[in-house]
Fold this sequence. Notes:
310 residues, 45% helix
Amino acid sequence: MDAPTLTLLQDIVEKNDIDALDKLLKPRKRIQNRAQNFKSALMLSGHQLKHLLKLENINSDCIMLNLEDGVSYEKKPLALRLVAYFLSQHESCSKKLVVRVNALDEGGLDEIRFLNAYAPDAIRVPKICSVKDVEKVLEVLDDNIELHLSIETKSGFSNIKTLQNKRRVKALYLGVLDLLADLGLDQSIIDVDNPTIHYILSEFLIASKIIGAHPVSFVYQDYKNMKEFKAWLELERKMGFLAKGCVSPAQADEAMKIFTLKDEHLRRAHAIVERFEKMQKQGVTGFADDEYGFIDEPIYKGALKTLSDC
């Protein structure tokens, strides 16, 4: 960004000058990022210019441009337009650019209508409770924009398996703090060894997979406690998660590292796929292998899934 433009944006943000920002906006149809296997969803505040300016240099494969929690009511119009401006400046981006709008009854639908012209890769809608909420969104969401949903109410959690609609729902995010509050459970149960949290994570993961949505585990708020954050990542990786919500670049770095498959896993998957497809051409779909044991179609499909997650 050139110096005069940066100075102008800084002045606009300082004065909360919506009219001046509107004059800079030019809708643009972007080349959208269709990747479905992002590992870290890093939250950036839509009203914080200094955060948005770092977008290109952050080590995260998904950037969550936030208009909801953490953005005051007075700053929400500014945040909406700043996010639209930065989308228009990225004809394409190696990172998945997702906009988290406000709840449907708190201006979210109008924000979606506004953002359609700027073609974010996805819109994330909070406080989804039922498939009727999904239908409301799809009535106004551009067909080329993915739909992501936040699961943070007890009705939303119990209805996950019903939320898929026209195959538009591509990712689900677990909002554990709001969910616990809605369930009447104390936040103190958020502990790596707590069986209730294990159940919530497992149910969320499996239900998301059933409807074909990418499950993103909850945001760990204590961003300075990297030891605890790493413990959560290790647990979630063992459970089958491949993505986590993040609130700091350090968290995003660690999530990218933990959820990136190691070289030996990739080598094994490539070898299984190669050997199975070779034998399949000979009409054999199950055989003993000296290095990897018995290889059949389920093992082959598992290897394909491993490679697709890379």
